[in-house]
Inverse folding.
């Protein structure tokens, strides 16, 4: 499966490039760069010239001067990926994500790298965290969320975890149906309805694997709402609310569940 996050090393290198500094008022000296950042910028210049080996030496020296300089870890990951050293890049990407936990895009790259290295349990944790962050920020393109759920299905198959496999496949099918609805100009699109029905089937299988879980119920509510089946949607909404205090929902799912069915609900804005 092709990763939707783009060229990993190029994106990481771009993320590590120095930002233009706002012009200082006339007469005021520019702030001095730390020694670690000076060496790091030499590494960035070496990367731009196509010398990742020289860049790596600079980044490593930068980290010796300042072990907490997270940008050097990101740049080291990009340089090692440029050389095809995914295993060498992985710990540095992990250190950067640990230092900058709100940068969802880099976390997505880290999850994908872990998956390619067959470190499936760690990849699952990072993909799940990416989904949480993407839901809260509302910025991730649909194809990235679809990719995450597809990867989570693959990890669940490897772990022989039926609940997670059916849950994430069902959520992925719902996302596909929503994407289809945005492209379709007909009121009742048979392809969209087929995707929603398949999503309902997968989510029902997830619930059969773990009957106490709230997430399948919540997404079944979403599916039947999209199909215009209000009585079924309300039934699953009640079940989701009953299970929610005792099982896992992401913060965004909790918020949407709280708003669902309320007058003048804003839940649609969170979807």
């Amino acid at each position: 499966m092709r990763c939707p996050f783009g060229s990993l090393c190029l994106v990481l290198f771009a993320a590590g490039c120095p930002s233009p500094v706002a012009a200082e008022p006339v007469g005021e000296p520019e702030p001095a760069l730390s020694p670690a950042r000076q060496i790091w910028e030499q590494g960035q210049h070496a990367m731009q010239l196509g010398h990742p080996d020289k860049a790596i030496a600079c980044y490593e020296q930068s980290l010796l001067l300042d072990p907490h300089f997270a940008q050097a870890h990101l740049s080291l990951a990009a340089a090692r990926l440029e050389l095809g050293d995914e295993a060498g890049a992985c710990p540095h990407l992990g250190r950067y994500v640990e230092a900058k936990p709100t940068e969802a895009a880099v976390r997505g790259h880290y999850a994908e790298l872990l998956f390619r290295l067959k470190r499936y349990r760690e990849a699952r944790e990072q993909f799940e965290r990416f989904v949480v962050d993407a839901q809260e920020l509302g910025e991730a393109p649909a194809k990235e969320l679809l990719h995450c759920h597809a990867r989570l299905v693959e990890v669940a198959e490897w772990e022989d975890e039926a609940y997670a496999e059916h849950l994430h496949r069902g959520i992925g099918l719902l996302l596909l149906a929503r994407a289809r609805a945005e492209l379709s100009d007909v009121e009742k699109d048979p392809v969209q309805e087929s995707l929603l029905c398949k999503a309902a089937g997968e989510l029902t299988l997830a619930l059969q694997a773990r009957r106490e879980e709230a997430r399948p119920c919540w997404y079944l509510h979403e599916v039947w709402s999209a199909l215009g089946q209000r009585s079924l949607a309300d039934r699953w909404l009640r079940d989701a609310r009953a299970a929610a205090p005792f099982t896992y929902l992401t913060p965004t799912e909790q918020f949407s569940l709280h708003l669902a069915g309320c007058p003048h609900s804003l839940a649609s804005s969170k979807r």
In short: The domain at 37-100 is CATH 1.25.40.10 (Serine Threonine Protein Phosphatase 5, Tetratricopeptide repeat). Residues 19-25, 263-271 have pLDDT under 50 and may be disordered. The longest helix spans residues 162-183.
